[in-house]
Design a protein that fits this description.
Oligomer: single chain
Number of domains: 2
CATH architecture of the largest domain: 3-Layer(aba) Sandwich
Radius of gyration: 21 Å
Largest sheet: 7 strands, parallel
Structural class: alpha/beta
């Protein structure tokens, strides 16, 4: 008998890497065994879900207030703000409970911080099992998530060993927790370097070396260090340009880095070298336009753009921060220390001057994705988890 799974996600857009990964999972799910329903905010992905015959329930998440502040070595909590946050969730929890009962849902799979909390309350209300998908690092206000994840959630999937370590500070392995890496289809994300539409769109000749950063415009993605490196690279290589691909999430509570990025471009004299493309829906076209992807994140939970680049045969220079290290340590790129623009620039200059090294990294990256980060393996591991939880 087919089991109905309710997926709960804050976003419904490809601007969110976590939402894109969830879309890949749901699209490839074995529909003979599982019937998916997705509850999320309306966005570009919700139309794609519906086009594939997947039921979508539109939901909105409330903004949360910060529930603590730090003074010296101590952290102080505002109990009334915590209570207020829970009250704001009540309409959403009631809606999820209604969906669970109306659609006879067998299992919940939640995909983001606020979705985990709302889904947990709805699951406990209805007596249904729940799987949390942790796609971010634990922060100092994550006490509820830490306690509930250890004691009261049926399974917790971490997208990397780094995210798991951040939630289990004692380092202990727990039977309800495991790491499952996201995956891509190597046949879809494949090298297609000729007649690139993105280069044509922005008037970039095929002879120009193109180095890019792809991701949301938020401080921890490290755009500052990318631009500092870009200035050094441009001083060494004449025919080089830099792409900054991405924008911020709608209604994001994170600070938008766009003004700072614009200021740095002007300050470093890079106006004729840097192209801000905004969000680009065709990530395969983006990765194939690049000679190198730089991922200078200060702390990256996983790095979906890294495996997307490697699958397209585009080498990556990334920081040894979080999940990036777990990916690149298996081939296809070079690791540098975070916040080190000079090291990024040095590696870019060396690689762009060594075509043989670029080809070798390209082959190694493709091999890495096929062996360790394929979509089929990702989906199979999650489906196995569903079977275990559902008995």
């Amino acid at each position: 008998m087919r089991k109905t799974i309710l997926y709960v996600d804050e976003q419904g857009t490809r601007l969110s890497g976590g939402s894109s990964c969830l879309f890949n999972l749901i699209s490839q799910l074995d529909k003979d065994n599982f019937t998916p329903i997705i509850a999320c905010r309306e966005g570009d992905l919700t139309g794609e879900y519906r086009a594939r015959g997947i039921e979508v329930d539109s939901i909105k998440f409330p903004h949360f207030s910060r529930v603590s502040f730090k003074k010296g070595r101590f952290r102080f909590f505002y109990p009334h703000r915590l209570f207020s946050n829970l009250l704001r969730l009540c309409p959403l929890v009631r809606k999820l409970v209604s969906i669970i009962r109306r659609k006879k849902v067998d299992l919940l799979h939640t995909n983001s911080f606020r979705a985990n909390i709302a889904g947990f309350l709805a699951a406990k209300w209805t007596g249904k099992p729940i799987i949390w998908h942790i796609r971010d690092f634990a922060h100092e206000e994550s006490i509820f998530i830490r306690i509930a994840g250890r004691k009261f959630v049926d399974r917790v999937i971490f997208m990397s060993k780094a995210t798991k370590r951040s939630f289990t500070s004692d380092g202990a392995n727990r039977p309800n927790m495991e790491v499952i890496y996201d995956g891509v289809d190597p046949d879809v994300y494949s090298p297609q370097k000729r007649n690139n539409k993105l280069r044509e769109k922005f008037g970039i000749s095929s002879s120009v070396r193109l180095v890019g950063i792809v991701g949301r415009l938020v401080p921890w993605k490290g755009h500052r260090y990318f631009l500092e490196a870009a200035r050094r690279i441009a001083d060494e290589i004449e025919d080089v340009k830099f792409l900054i691909v991405g924008e911020n999430l709608p209604e994001s509570q994170e600070r938008n880095s766009y003004p700072e990025i614009e200021c740095l471009i002007e300050k470093r004299g890079l106006r004729d070298k840097v192209i801000l493309t905004g969000f680009q829906s065709d990530i395969v076209e983006v990765m194939n336009a690049l000679d190198l992807l730089v991922c200078p994140s200060l702390a990256e939970p996983f790095g979906m753009v890294v495996i997307e680049a490697l699958a397209c045969g585009t080498p990556v220079i990334g920081t040894d921060a979080g999940g990036i290290k777990e990916i690149l340590s298996q081939g296809g790129g070079i690791l540098v220390s975070s916040r080190d623009a000079e090291a990024i620039a040095c590696e870019v200059v060396n690689l762009l001057g060594n075509d043989r090294a670029l080809i070798d990294l390209s082959k190694a990256g493709r091999c890495n994705v096929k062996q360790n980060f394929g979509l089929d393996g990702y989906v199979a591991q999650v489906e196995k988890l569903y079977q275990e939880v559902l008995g």
